[in-house]
Design goal:
464 residues; alpha/beta; Rossmann fold; Helicase, Ruva Protein, domain 3; AAA+_ATPase
């Protein structure tokens, strides 16, 4: 039996979390504040910690920093109702086991508890200053949340990272986040587009040259590796690099040194992040990419999904881009029809195309509201990619669409559970009292449980 410290200023949520901990066979130790949690840690043995991020007084991030300084092996899962790329990355950088968004499902919390208690942490995780917000990493879908967490775990590592994804998905944004949030943030970030520089010039661009090494070499050139010394070198579109140069990149990665054209080897301290929109495994099989370099780059892979697979992120991204453009053009908002059109569009150019469209709208739309007519230029091959039922939902305002979806899910859960409300609540991942309230709201309260009542332990940890 383990002791799990639960830190949250919401008494009801503490109780709900404690119930799940108890059902897992462990002892819950509640703490109403960050200060109380640190006092408990100083005097009692604790095996794991569940920590709310937003609390009055000492907030969760500061508590996590102090825990890392004083109790380096204690596994901590952070909870927040307001997850952002910045606080996700920072929590994971500080060594959080996981970063969960409220409402927290029972299954997710149980999985986190089991993982924390099975974890054998061996090293100290350093603290650090809070980085600036990662605006380009806005995302609430599971795939982007996973990317944010991975970045947080990698920022203070020197491991080589390979970022894959379609053109325009934000691969350089991820590379910059790895740099800006980590221990190399004060040193240079140097980006080189391997597809944009002719192969005959690429060697000098990367490794530099000495004066007189070849015709036209009128002065020494450092090259990107040496320019990035102490920092991060981002090799974009590395899948398009010439085979002969791939061998030299491999040697530089293995030996941590570079040889300028006409010069002698020089040691460099560089964290390399590479990116490509190509399938490198296929390129290897076709003979267009070195297998040994692929495995040297593929130490930690990060894949970015296309925007059409993360539709929940489209409107938050639009709002962010409009806010950025508003400094010059005045604040603008979308009406419901315009929002529906943007969400329904296929976005073949991904986030880059979305940013360009928003910037165009911000400049050309004279009034404060962007309408569907203003984005008529998007009509075409990419304009339809959602079923009619989904588009009908997008024609509603957000509360109406959410209510319609919620009612449909509750009806389906009750049908699947033969009217058993406790089972339906568990299937939906919410408390039974919350299910009852929603059933009453949608006129579903006539449904009756057909089995005996089940104990409160069947409830999930949800809306708090």
């Amino acid at each position: 039996m383990a002791t799990v410290l639960i830190v949250d200023d919401d008494a009801a949520l503490r109780d709900a979390l404690g119930e799940v901990v108890g059902d897992c066979g462990h002892t819950a130790r509640p703490a109403p504040s960050g200060e109380a949690a640190l006092a408990i840690l100083a005097n009692e043995a604790v095996d794991a910690m569940v920590l709310d991020l937003r609390m009055p007084g000492l907030d969760g991030m500061e508590v996590l920093r102090r825990v890392r300084d004083r109790f380096t092996t204690l596994p901590v899962t952070v909870l927040t109702a307001h997850a952002t790329a910045a606080n996700t990355i920072e929590a994971m950088r500080l060594g959080a086991f996981d970063h969960l968004t409220k409402p927290v499902g029972r299954a997710a919390l149980t999985q986190a508890l089991n993982g924390m208690l099975a974890l054998n942490r061996g090293g100290e995780t350093p603290g650090g200053a809070t980085p600036s917000p990662a605006e380009g990493l806005i995302g609430v879908c599971e795939a982007m949340r996973a990317v944010q967490k991975t970045i947080g775990m990698l920022v203070d590592s020197d491991a080589t990272v390979l970022i894959t994804g379609e053109t325009g998905t934000g691969k350089e944004v991820v590379a910059r986040a790895l740099h800006d949030h980590g221990s190399r943030a004060a040193r240079p970030f140097v980006a080189v587009n391997c597809a944009a520089i002719p192969s005959e010039l690429m060697e000098s661009e990367l490794f530099g040259h000495v004066k007189g090494a070849f015709t036209g070499a009128t002065a020494d050139r450092m090259g990107a590796f040496r320019q990035a010394d102490g920092g991060t070198l981002f090799l974009d579109e590395i899948g398009d690099m010439d085979l002969a140069l791939q061998a030299k990149i491999l040697r530089a990665l293995q030996e941590r040194s570079v040889t300028p054209i006409g010069g002698k080897p020089m040691a460099v301290d560089v964290r390399v992040v590479a990116a490509t929109h190509r399938d490198l495994r296929q390129r290897v099989s076709e003979g267009g990419f070195r297998e040994d370099l692929f495995y040297r780059l593929h130490v930690v892979p990060i894949h970015l999904p296309p925007l059409r697979e993360r539709r929940a992120d489209i409107l938050p991204l639009v709002e962010s881009f409009l806010a950025q453009a508003g400094n010059k053009t005045g604040n603008k908002t979308l009406d419901a029809d315009a929002a529906a059109r943007l969400v329904a569009y296929r976005w073949p150019g991904n986030v880059r195309e979305l940013r360009n469209v928003v910037e165009r709208l911000a400049v050309l739309v004279r009034g404060p509201v962007i309408t569907a007519a203003d984005i008529g230029f998007l009509e075409g091959a990419g304009a339809r990619s959602m079923p009619d039922s989904a588009e009908r939902g997008l024609e509603e305002d957000l509360p109406a669409a959410v209510a319609r979806l919620e009612e449909s899910m509750i009806r389906r859960a009750l049908e699947r559970c033969a009217g058993n409300r406790a089972e339906a609540a568990r299937l939906l991942g919410i408390h039974r009292p919350l299910l009852y309230a929603k059933m009453k709201r949608y006129g579903l309260e006539a449904s009756e449980e057909r089995t005996a009542p089940v104990s409160n332990s069947d409830a999930s940890v949800s809306e708090q």
